[in-house]
Amino acid sequence: MKVAFVTGGAAGIGRAIAARFASAGYRVAIADSDVAAGNDARDEHGVRFDPLDVADEAAVARVIAGVAAWGGGLDVVVNNAGIANPARRPLEELPVAEWRRVIDVNLTGMFLVARAAAPHLRARKGSIINITSTRAIMSEPNTFAYSASKGGATALTHSLAVSLGPDVRVNAIAPGWIATDAWQPRDRRKPPELRPIDHQFHPAGRVGTPEDIAALALFLASDDAGFITGQVITSDGGVTRKMIYPE
Q: What is the pLDDT of residues 7-58, one digit of tens each?
């Protein structure tokens, strides 16, 4: 049985990815810094859960070694953990400590997970899938660290693909607007609060769902994607291809 490890797997996109891989027959392990949410995901989806701060080098090595021992190997790593909603501050007011924390979790964490997992993935001709963002190529004001971390994740993806190939394929998914309310822990779950205009803004006609990203992740991990590596696949309903002029 194939084994998948998903960071940030307790809620949102990561939880949907973990559930999708589990339903496809994988043994799934998740890690997350939110212990209550991780325990809830474990109970609901039958996955293994380890508390983890992906910026902690020693903890990353320990958790991945434990997952590989538990699963008898490792086939897929999904680097999804990240600080998604950091405080938006004007440039002059952004503390260096806050910048570093976002970079440490969103970018250095990906590196640490990939480094620790690489020997296990090589042995099984496995795959890494990094979850980046359309914010790697477009920004809202005052999102410096988040945008920079996602741009770095995009570059890290092709660097890993060239360095680990042909044994390990490495790709990334860049989600756009994804409504994650329905994939929270069960005590926080609610229907998304979306307006018609939110859907109409997308050329695809709707806001994205975590299921959209999970389906793409499962495909990228499959043999059907065996000739795809070093790529960033954008799943945003067409928004980054849409020219927007002032009315």
A: 999 999 999 999 999 999 999 999 999 999 999 999 999 999 999 999 999 9
Element (H, E) at 17: helix 12-23
pLDDT tens for each residue of 171-180: 999 999 999 9
| Pick from 114, 99, 213: nearest CA to 146 | 99
Q: Are 109 and 7 in contact (CB under 8 A)?
A: yes
- Name the nearest CA neighbour of 12 among 206, 214, 197, 201: 214
* 213, two tokens: 């990203």
Q: How many C-beta atoms lie closer than 10 Å to residue 13's C-beta?
A: 28
H-helix or E-strand spanning residue 138: none
Separation of CA 105 from chain center: 12
Length of the chain: 247
Say if residues 51 and 74 touch (Cβ distance below 8 Å).
Answer: no
Q: Contact 132/157 with Cβ under 8 angstroms?
A: yes
CA nearest neighbour of 140 among 95, 84, 88, 82? 88
| Catalytic-role residue among 5, 26, 49, 146 | 146
Among 75, 230, 69, 77, residue whose Cα is nearest residue 164: 230
Contact predicate 225/216, CB 8 Å: no
pTM (two decimals): 0.96
Contact 172, 153 (CB under 8 A): yes
CA of residue 184 relative to chain centroid, distance: 15
Query: Is residue 146 annotated as a catalytic residue, yes or no?
Result: yes
